C-alpha cells in the first residue's frame, strides 16, 4: 500500500507543477516550426532562407499549452453557466 500512496503523491506533485507552469507561462513554442513562425529551408546555393508561414501556429511561433486550454474551457463554461 505504501507504493500506491507514493505513486499517487508523485502524480499529484507532477500535476501541481504542470498547473503552476501553465499559470506562469500559458504559451509554449510551436512544435512544428520550433518557435520561428515559419519553416526554415535552404535555397539552391545552400543559404538558409525563410520559408512559408507555419500552418499550425499561423506564423506566431507559439501554441497554447494543453493545461491552459482546459482551464480556459472550464472558466468559459462556468462563466456562461452562471449568467
Automatic annotation (TrEMBL):
InterPro entries, A to Z: Antitermination_sf, HSP_DnaJ_Cys-rich_dom_sf
Endpoints of the signal sequence: 1-19
SUPFAM superfamilies reported for this sequence: DnaJ/Hsp40 cysteine-rich domain
Alphabetically ordered keywords of this record: Signal
Organism superkingdom: Bacteria
Record's protein name: Uncharacterized protein
Organism name: Actinacidiphila guanduensis
Biological classification of the source: Bacteria, Bacillati, Actinomycetota, Actinomycetes, Kitasatosporales
Amino acid at each position: 500500500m505504501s507504493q500506491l500512496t507514493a505513486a499517487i503523491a508523485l502524480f499529484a506533485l507532477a500535476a501541481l507543477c504542470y498547473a503552476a507552469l501553465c499559470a506562469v507561462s500559458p504559451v509554449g513554442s510551436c512544435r512544428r516550426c520550433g518557435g520561428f513562425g515559419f519553416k526554415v529551408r535552404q535555397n539552391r546555393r545552400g543559404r538558409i532562407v525563410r520559408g512559408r508561414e507555419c500552418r499550425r501556429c499561423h506564423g506566431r511561433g507559439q501554441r497554447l499549452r494543453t493545461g491552459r486550454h482546459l482551464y480556459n474551457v472550464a472558466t468559459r463554461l462556468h462563466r456562461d453557466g452562471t449568467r
